[in-house]
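Sequence in, structure out.
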Amino acid sequence: MKSNKTIIITGTSGGIGFVLAEYFGKKGHKVYGLSRKTAESPYFITIPTDITDNNQVQAAITKVLNDGQNIDLLINNAGMGMVGAVEDSTKDDIWKLFNLNLVGAVQLMSAVLPAMRAQKNGQIINISSIGSEMGLPFRGFYSASKSALDKVTEAIRYEVSPWNIHVCSLHLGDIKTKIAENRVKTSVSDPYKITFSKVHDLMNSHVDDGTEPLDVAVYIEKLILKDHWKAHYYFGKFGQKIGVPLKWILPQRLYEKLMKKYNKLD
């Protein structure tokens, strides 16, 4: 990979985004981190940005271009989780989730595409989830928001291919971050409390035992060296990745039985 790439990464105030920004900054790339909170690091430049505000997004991209930079790679990493029963979820919570996980990512793509078209190349990685491939219990709207982003990714691949712009979804399994602290958590009504408590404890333990964020950075570094991209890539522990092909090949009833067992719902 060339040492003069300009990389924009969203959600760099902590977690995966911060690790990615520092990793690529240390490699000699010009990295701009877009996040609402300023991240202190000598390895990348933070531009305070709420990606759900399109005016702020446009201003951030203008700053990068005014610095005289091409935009070689966008990593749409900013996002949030949401837990709770579908029945208990409010319109406001659902909107907040989709506004960040889907609308924010789309606004970033729309902002960088004119520059990528002008230079006739570019790469966009939309950070998705293995959970986007199935409806996860008590994470239905999170799965839905990432699945929606996946479908937008598939569509935009056709639209931007004439300009040698490559786009993919990178589906991550559980990564060892503080995501549990930043999830939207809906109030849980009485019929679901016992079951939700078990599933919630389990999902938090999976995060605590997750893959290191640095491993994601190494994987992305290898990915952006490829000449041609598939629409979807999957990264995480085998026990989570295997759920995707199993959903494709198993009868629905058997697959749901396995998912119930995995989530301790049986």
